[in-house]
Amino acid sequence: MFLTLPTLLTWARIIAIPLIVGVFYTPFDAPTRNLVATVMFVVVALTDWLDGWLARKLNQTSAFGAFLDPVADKFLVCAALLILVQLDRVNALVALVIIGREIAISALREWMAQIGASRSVAVHMLGKLKTVTQMVAIPFLLYDGALMGVVDTRLWGTALILLAAVLTIWSMVYYLRKALPEIRAKAR
User: Domain containing 140: what range?
Assistant: First the structure.
């Protein structure tokens, strides 16, 4: 189903990406840009949970929605990471690890689906933990200030994005190991 409420929320997430990026090109002062981008990112990221919940609740799950949802998530994370690299809040190597893994695992999942072995690379708790970690790290890094005058968001965001990079590598190794028997079987 192309235009269900859950799918429209996913499309809205994709449409919001250039708006979040565009905030950093406005004439507002840096703290205002940081706050606006952070709020937008959090709201947009929450639509990921909401569209999945609505799809199940309204019985509007679809193959198209299952395809589009992770694509929207990857676009959102990649765009945020690129902005954070440009703002010198994330190391380029960390961003490359996270973005590279997303591309590699997406390609692996596509190939495994083509050979009828998609179950071997189904989403695992480790991948979900990686996603949650980066989805908390990114708003901290976008905000880049003292939250409630106490929490140093750059410090916590940096620690969390480094943890996300470690989880990224770990989950990629996990998925590759799960797929290896199928890869070996098809290579013969």
Answer: 5-187
